[in-house]
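Pasting as-is:
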Amino acid sequence: MSWKNKWRNLINNSKLAGNTCLLSLEEYINLALEAGLVSPDQIGCTPESFQMARYGDKGNYEVGNCRFITMKENLLEKKINGGVQSGADKLRGRTKDDTNYLRSSSERQKGRINQGSEKAAQIKKGTTKYNNPSLAKTADKQSKHYRLVSPSGEIFEGKNLTEFCKQHGLHQGCMSNVIAGRIKHHKGWTGEFI
């Protein structure tokens, strides 16, 4: 990538961050040469590569307010100056209290659900395999046939090991390990998938 392309990237990235790059191409190259850079390939996103940084992470990218430093140094400065996220929050008009609320675990969980997916909509409504035939059919397809032997020697065959374990007070993970042959028994129970 050329010096010109790196300079254009700085202009575009600064706009995205809500800043302005007032550096001309010549000023940009001069700053790079002052920092000891000899190739535009030295500018990048690895810890030892160089990036354009503003003093105090304030103001625009202009002569006297910015210089090239390593990415590692830049990240350290951003952390000292309030971090990357706080700057983004300021751009969105959020306060510290708002962002703490948005970052709570329940909000993160809500963010992970794809709003457009039908399954996510069903989950949000409280739809389960017990009250929806479509989900029951899917659960049935995914369930495996098992044969289990109780401590008293009684044989149980069926489908859906998780449900069986709930009904009989067994740990599903332990029973899966028994069936897979990783452990010999769980509470005296043995078994196999059919």
